[in-house]
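Hi support team,

I'm filing this because I wasn't sure whether my run with aspartic acid finished correctly. The job status page said complete, but I'd like someone to confirm that the output block is well-formed before I use it downstream. Pasting the exact inputs I used:
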Amino acid sequence: MHLDFLGSLTRTHMCGDLRPADAGEDVVLMGWVNRRRDHGNLIFLDLRDRSGITQVVLDKEHAPAAHLKAEAARPEFVVAVTGKVRERGEGLNNPKMDTGDIEVLGHQLLLLNDAKTPPFSPAEDAIANEEVRLKYRYLDLRRKEMQDNFKLRSEVAMAIRNYLVGENFLEIETPFMTRSTPEGARDYLVPSRVHPGHFYALPQSPQIFKQILMISGFDRYFQIARCFRDEDLRADRQPEFTQIDLETTFPQQATIFRIVEGFLTAAFATAGVTLSSPFVQMTYDEAIRRYGIDKPDMRLPALVDLTDTLTPELRMTLKIEQSLPVLGIKIPNAGQLSGTQTRALQDEIREVFGDCGLDFLNVARLKTNENFAPLATAIESEMEGSDPHITAEKRGGPRLAPGNLLVVITPKLGTPEKWNHDPHWIYKKVGVLRLALARKFADKHKLFERTGTANDYKFLWVTDFPMYEWDDDAKTWQAAHHPFTSPHEDDITSGRLVSDKGAVRALAYDIVLNGTELGSGSIRIHRKDVQQEIFRSLGMSDEEAKARFGFFLDALDYGTPPHGGIALGLDRIVMILAGAQSLREVIAFPKTAKAIDLMVDAPTPVSDQQLRDLSLRTVTRT
Ligand code: ASP
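And here is everything the job wrote out:
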């Protein structure tokens, strides 16, 4: 194959630029052959670059040399075309293409590079095999969908930067090679060659550094920061991911909320979505009691608390535990279920609950019994009427849509004692079922479907998280957030840090979108005595605290202002805005769920020499 040199040729337009107004103009386009159609004397090349596609015609009579080269061109060849823009003429235009009213009549064609037949065509919309896509990522990224995702990502990041800089934030970089930051995952370690047996850790987040930047008086810091977490393999996690990380001095929670709402509004505006703020706020306790989860999906109706609808007498007859709540789940528009469907649904509910002590009340059966019919009616009207979210139903459908599925969950008599340490357990269990049912009937209620408006995005702040979580395996209290999170001031003064850990609330908050946690943050501890107390209350001795965080405790000694911040996952925000199903669609070079980069083939073993340099030896685990 004879390839041409570029010489001094420069392109005049991008492939997506030309319109009928450009007719008659001489242009130079460069790009990839998206498709080629050979009609004998006429060869059509669809020329593609980031901006779009232009049809180029090579006419044997008009430009025989160019036509000859076009005969050799194949998909994904890189070419340069010199030619004249012309309108396509009646009936020949393609309304599906932005450039569909024009074409370029080629005078000269340069074949700048050839291409092997690709394993899949970047011109195709959907490619089934993700492994092949990841292995040939450079081809995958040529696809329009991917190009659009990364354009969006760049614009979103820029909008956020601009907003934060406008709010007096400084972008400051923090190190990748550092020491462990406790965010609850394992560290990725980097062995030091010059200090044998010593390791750097890649940051799980810039947490400690950003707090130190507040001690240093920078007042407002942000960073679009890469974080590294060696987590157990989970479908939608990436070992390295990007956070919009920020910290500010002297904030109230409301200060942070306003900043985040501001930059999210700017980010969503780049995708044409106008958000309205302030976002809804809810305490952790309320989120659990109303939605059964600390990241409620507000597109769905809340749980209905039917506890008071069931009198003690009725409970006795129906063998329902007296002291625990009775909760209803409503799935709108699920439609009428057949007998078989109902039985399958009941099996599914039993499966979700296992033997945890929860059961469901068969409201339909109650209705047929004279004694219980009034109860059934009361339950139905309570559940149909008490839902504030249904009135705001995005499609403006009827308030009481027929075919709502109502499921009532009751605790059996003698429900296991083991749950007693967590008064939220019943809500959480029912919350899981609520989501499972919502997913199951998604085709029917359509509440997860995108309409392209701000209604698709239900944001919410969840506040007042518990400070500690009981770890049943280790039989200890763990920090629910990271250990730099401040408890409520009155929980410190009242002594609850010691006397009643389970009741201590943290000044921690999450931002939730459509049932996904987008980010979390907190007001931090700024006093050394409190920080030491928290370390102790987490079972860390003063010596251990000094060994791990001595530098930080030292810094707290030198005039640390009250400060607080948050971090939001950029990848996830872009994924949601792009309507993508996986983080891998919005990370240019992602890893698989097994933490492998299929393109560069990492991780790999390294040479013995490299290991020797690092004073390392690998052993095979038995
Ligand atoms: N460092 C925390 C995280 O990565 C966020 C924060 O508290 O600002 O989740």
